[in-house]
Amino acid sequence: MPKEAPLAEHDDNYVVMEEFERFSQKYDVFRRSFWDKHVKTEKSRRFYRTYRDTLDSWRKADGFTQRDYALRNASWHVSDLFTEYKENEDRREGFNDAFTLQREVADEAVEFESPEAAAIEIKRVARGFGADLVGITAMDLRWLYTEKFSDISGTARPNDIPEDLRSVIVTAQAMDYSLIRTAPSALSGAATGLGYSHDALVVLSLAQYLRNLGYRAIASMNDSALAIPFALQAGLGEYSRLGLLITKEFGPRVRLGKVFTDLPLAFDEPIRFGVKEFCDSCRRCADACPVGAIPHGDPSLKRYNKSNLKGVKKWSVDGEKCFGYWAAQNSDCAICVRVCPYNKDYSRWWMRCGRRLAATPIRRFLLWLDIKLGFGERVKPKNWWSRLGTSVSQGSR
Length: 397
Ligand code: SF4
Ligand code: SF4
What we know:
Elements: E1 4-6, E2 14-21, H1 29-32, H2 42-49, H3 66-84, H4 115-128, E3 133-138, E4 147-149, E5 156-158, E6 167-174, H5 177-180, H6 189-212, E7 217-220, H7 227-233, E8 238-239, E9 245-246, E10 254-261, H8 275-281, H9 284-288, E11 310-314, H10 319-329, H11 335-339, H12 349-357, H13 363-372, H14 381-386
Antiparallel strand pairs: 1-2, 2-11, 3-6, 4-5, 6-10, 7-10, 8-9
Helix pairs in contact: 2-10, 3-6, 4-6
The structure holds iron/sulfur cluster (2 copies).
């Protein structure tokens, strides 16, 4: 590896340095919440219980009532069914392990005219299955976990993704902004659950399609590999201060999925549309985070704890602080996602104009205007319920 190998020629906010080390899933902050006393607390146990069991006493606070949790947990239900299906085999598919609920690969392989033609077809099929965004990149061993970790048995084991699966299809599911706008609340967690449930459908169906064509394919959500660098390389968006991908279409409001396959596909190129420069001027996510988990400074090699990747110069989030807040409030938090100015309805031409101007020196004025106009402000969860005429799945996507 060269002394300083950027993720892409023109990418300067996710720079892989010489001291880079591949990441073990064991140190992902969610995995640590099952074994590491710094993260595994009484609050974190209760946090997870709220996804499965009814709370002993429902909180009275708006956004945390039985009805809010009912919706959040129902939105997770499809994803949960897949994840829990093989728990008796010490597998939590989609989060610890890749999906194995797939039929065999067909004996005969369908030939494609070219990798370009195959990529066009695969993207069309993925969108047909409901993917909001699709990009393709090459397998990059840097982003595969060195080992997997089981939340159930508390054991590390080898990552079983074959390294010769040369193509990685990255999908993104948009999360409903009308729900995210209620963050912090259990209600806003319904956007996360719906994202994962849709994601499971897309990656499982797409992988099965490839297998039916006669190619090996493995469907994956948060398991097996770091999704963000693959998504950056697949051209789905740019890296941002809040530690997430910002897409052109949905801002930071996406959940990512991956399908690893041996089908030769044409690869996409990373994109830039001014996010790095905008984040250099903007601090809204960092200012809004209730526990100061998001940095105010420049991209750096700083690691807050062992959940941060080593040797990548970027904006890194303090996952211990962030997860601690989730555990304290009994639901995931999306305040930073809510306040990000890249949450707009880009089907409107004037919003697309604004996105283009955000990449120019007038970005400071746009940022001021965004705040003045009230974008990113919290909507009271009870108001979301009273406006339920808007479909839960469409919201303001
Ligand atoms: S999710 Fe909430 S706690 Fe975590 S970084 Fe964002 S604002 Fe902070
Ligand atoms: S809120 Fe501002 S600084 Fe944070 S990710 Fe969005 S644009 Fe970047």
